[in-house]
Design a protein that fits this description.
Largest sheet: 6 strands, antiparallel
Structural class: alpha+beta
Number of strands: 6
Number of domains: 2
Number of helices: 9
């Protein structure tokens, strides 16, 4: 049985990395074409290529489940085309024993994908975003920043350094206890204090609205206590799908404490947590297809089925994500439903296999 496990694992992993390489290469080329629109005198083609390379692991992480599906279809499909599966069955090896042989390398891919999505892709993606912003210039009006609420303040931040300890072009709108506008403060830069007890605002212009007049003052430096920490800023400045699991969880809790909408971050959190199980469910679907309707078809047809299945589940996920937020459904339900569909179809077809 050890030889059987090695044979199946070798075929599946080889097919997995072939699929991942081909699809990843296509994605990389399209990313280059898309990024060419941002190339300028300050942001050269070399800078764009560096940015795409740094953010590419995030794309690879998203492709992992579908590459595993392709690995199962092509790896086991090659065994079926060479009648090796028939020999295994004729030797008394059950379908479920073969499924278990496929599951073993799948567990390895699940762990590999989890490590890539938690420890490798997020910091590289953040570093790439920061390098791009640095090359384009932090003060450019065309580049979009982000807003955040903290206590009684609404804050606009143009950019955040990779370590989260420096903010650029900060605007603070402060409200009073009755919710009315109190002051408007701009700062060229904000640096997290060495003591870790707040922020130091640099090059400040403060406009305060009093009952009788509007007063404007300028200061070289001022202290600012805020609930925004460097760890939270590292999460806030990135798209939810490119963040780490731990970062998403911390920031979702922060949004809950501030009474803000956190569904999109919880949805990204559950997608990251459950992605290994999505990988396992799609592999199960691929194995059941090889034993069922794809037992005697060509390799090209299996590739077509794999692409169709991957697109179908991608569309389901893309529909469920905004739908769950719009109708107030549980983000956990939106993340689990595609997994249940894939695993349910796989188990149904395997149970029909004789």
């Amino acid at each position: 049985m050890i030889r059987l496990d090695r044979l199946i694992a070798g075929r599946m992993l080889f097919a997995f990395f072939i699929v991942l390489s081909v699809v990843g290469a296509v994605d990389f080329v399209f990313a280059i074409v898309d990024e060419l629109g941002d190339v300028s005198d300050s942001y050269s083609f070399a800078g764009a290529l560096s940015y795409i390379t740094l953010t590419f692991p995030s794309s690879v992480h998203e492709l992992f489940p579908f590459a595993a599906l392709g690995g199962a279809l092509l790896g086991l499909g090659s065994l079926a085309s060479n009648n090796e599966l028939v020999v295994m069955r004729a030797s008394g090896i059950s379908v479920w024993r073969i499924v278990w042989s496929v599951a073993k390398p799948t567990f390895f891919l699940m762990i590999l994908g989890l490590i890539l999505g938690e420890y490798v892709a997020p910091p590289l993606d953040k570093f790439g975003q920061d390098k791009k912003a640095e090359l384009q210039g932090y003060t450019g009006g065309e580049r979009e920043g982000f807003w955040q609420k903290s206590g009684k303040e609404f804050i606009y931040i143009d950019a955040v350094a990779s370590d989260g300890r420096t903010m650029y072009n900060v605007i603070r709108y402060t409200l009073d206890d009755e919710g009315s506008f109190k002051s408007y403060i701009t700062a060229r830069r904000a640096e997290f204090s060495v003591e870790g007890d707040g922020w130091n605002l640099i090059e400040i212009r403060e406009t305060e609205l009093n009952s009788n007049a509007i007063q404007t003052i300028e200061l070289p430096r001022s202290n600012w206590e805020s609930g925004l920490s460097p760890n939270l800023l590292q999460v806030l400045s990135q798209d939810p799908d490119t963040q780490s699991i731990s970062g998403l969880f911390r920031f979702s809790q922060f949004l809950d404490r501030e009474g803000l909408e956190s569904s999109s971050y919880y949805l990204a959190f559950w997608k990251k947590i459950l992605q290994p199980f999505m990988t396992l469910a799609l592999v199960l679907l691929g194995v059941s297809s090889v034993f069922g309707p794809l037992r005697e078809v060509t390799t090209g047809y299996r590739v077509f089925v794999g692409i169709t299945a991957a697109l179908s589940f991608t569309i389901i996920q893309r529909i469920l994500e905004p739908t769950s937020i719009l109708f107030g459904l549980s983000p956990l339900f939106a993340a689990l439903l595609p997994i249940f569909i894939a695993s349910g179809l796989g188990l149904f077809m395997l149970n029909r296999t004789r």
